[in-house]
Amino acid sequence: QVQLVESGGGLVQPGESLRLSCVISENIDDFSAVAWYRQAPGKQREAVAIMPIHGGTKYGTSVLGRFAIDKIIAKNTVILQMNNLKPEDSAVYFCNAVRYSSQYWGQGTQVTVSS
Predict the structure, then answer these.
(1) What's the Cα-to-Cα distance from 98 to each of 2, 11, 66, 80, rounded to whole Å?
(2) In the chain, at which residue ranges do the beta strands (DSSP E only) sit?
(3) Which residues fall within 8 angstroms of residue 101, CB to CB, at 6 or more apart?
(4) Residue 110 has pLDDT above 90, yes or no
(5) Backbone angles phi, psi at 76, to 5 degrees
(6) For residues 67 and 2, what is the distance between their CA atoms, to the nearest angstrom?
(7) CB 30 within 8 A of CB 24
(8) Potential cystine with 39: which of 27, 45, 57, 75 (Cβ 3.0-4.6 Å)?
(9) Average pLDDT estimate for 21-45
(10) 21 forms bridges with which residues in the sheet?
């Protein structure tokens, strides 16, 4: 069973940065795409950043230029670097990995941006 474990969430002030990590229990190169999604209370889950294995990374319009997704292949880890955080970025952030027709999700990590 594939497991994804996120970490790095927390409470920060507007304008600050956070770095989320997601460790995948299997070889990260076996997945056709890795991604980060988020879900705020009362809202639908939305894609934050999607990184296909063959390139063509895409970002949500609200985070473009502020967030960056990356992989540390040797550690089977997906990173989400979040800069210049805004209160509207507050949500539970989920790591996602796709292999063939299956999707795998982490348990989520809470990010709260508040002064």
Answers:
(1) 11, 29, 24, 17
(2) 4-7, 10-12, 18-24, 33-39, 46-52, 58-59, 67-72, 77-82, 91-99, 102-105, 109-113
(3) none
(4) yes
(5) 50, 45
(6) 26
(7) no
(8) 45
(9) 96
(10) 7, 79
- Calculate the average pLDDT of the chain: 97
Provide the percentage of residues in the chain whose pLDDT is more than 90. Answer: 97
Query: Which amino acid belongs to residue 105?
Result: W
Q: What are phi and psi of 75, to 5 degrees?
A: -110, 10
Question: Is residue 27's pLDDT more than 90?
Answer: yes
Q: How many CA atoms lie within 13 A of 18 on its CB side?
A: 21
The residue written with tokens 């999607």 in the block is 50
Token representation of residue 32: 């056709």
Q: What is the pLDDT of residue 55?
A: 87
Tokens at 34, concatenated = 């890795």
What mean pLDDT is predicted for residues 86-113? Answer: 97
For the chain, the maximum distance between any two Cα atoms, rounded to a whole number of angstroms, is: 42
The token pair at 31 is 């997945």
